[in-house]
Write a structure and sequence with these properties.
Elements (H helix, E strand, L loop, with lengths): L12 E5 L4 H12 L3 E6 L2 H10 L4 E5 L5 H15 L4 E4 L14 H29 L3 E6 L12 H24 L3 E8 L9 H6 L3 H10 L9 H12 L10 E4 L12
Parallel strand pairs: 1-2, 1-4, 2-3, 4-5, 5-6, 6-7
């Protein structure tokens, strides 16, 4: 892999899970714009290929079920084979289901844990090994949520999976520091994002999609929900050398939602 394109990630090789849509797709685009060679990883291979084609020679697609260790090993080996090394892992793939503890279905719980927590663990563990073995240096960025920092009654299972990611990120960051590894670990905590994770069908039945967006935006002091690009920009910063002193931290992309009591008055 070689690139004459300069940017904040020039010469870096990154694998981004959930790359076919939403924040993952936006992150793939931003990374390529900043000079990285991007492995667009997703369980939806056709979608990943479409995103990779947009990157003008700066990326390639791979099928990845993040809950599978075997699939991770294949994808990471592909990244090194085509990029020459690995520097950055972005664990962005995720699933969610609305429900209180009383409403929480065991199958939904197990799926959220498998994708959101186990998938992130595998990306951290195997991604770290690949970065070190290939001579890379950089960061592992874990997509999280404000629900990983503050309890929310109506998303009990999702919040639990993201709370696990918060602690996993901190543990990994400390481990890398203790070992002297050239790898940082950061988690990104967005508020509501205008992506498929919002469940458009549910939104439409809740009074209309645009009306529901306005209702959600009213809960956020800045006055709107986040776009995929808002979150991708935070991921870009966390992965870049500009964030060289940031590890083990939770970066909020929440429009001041967790800043304190809010009175829109």
């Amino acid at each position: 892999m070689s690139s004459d394109k300069m940017g904040r990630l020039a010469g870096k090789v990154a694998i981004i899970t959930g790359g076919s849509s939403g924040v993952g797709r936006a992150t793939c685009r931003r990374f390529a714009q900043e000079g990285a060679f991007v492995i667009v990883a997703d369980i939806n291979l056709d979608g990943a290929k479409m995103v990779a084609q947009e990157l003008a020679g700066q990326g390639m697609a791979v099928h990845l079920d993040v809950a599978s260790e075997e699939a991770w090993l294949y994808a990471l080996n592909l990244a090194v084979d085509h990029g020459g090394k690995l520097d950055i892992v972005c664990n962005i793939a995720g699933v969610g289901k609305v429900g209180t503890i009383e409403e929480l279905d065991l199958n939904d719980w197990q799926r959220m844990i498998a994708v959101n927590l186990t998938g992130t663990m595998l990306g951290c563990k195997l991604g770290l090994a690949t970065i070190l073995q290939s001579g890379g240096r950089g960061a592992i960025v874990n997509m999280n949520s404000i629900a990983g920092l503050a309890g929310m009654a109506d998303i009990a299972g999702y919040g639990a999976s993201k709370g696990g990611v918060t602690m996993l990120t901190k543990a990994m960051a400390l481990h890398c520091c203790q070992k002297g590894y050239p790898v940082r670990c950061v988690s990104i905590h967005p508020t509501y994002i205008d992506t498929g994770m919002l469940d458009h069908n549910l939104m439409n039945t809740a009074g209309g999609y645009e009306e529901r967006l306005q209702e959600l935006g009213a809960l956020i002091p800045i006055g709107r929900i986040a776009t995929p690009e808002d979150v991708a920009n935070a991921v870009l910063f966390a992965a870049s050398d500009e964030a060289a002193m940031i590890s083990g931290s939770s970066i909020l992309v929440d429009g001041a939602q967790l800043a304190g009591l809010y009175n829109p008055g």
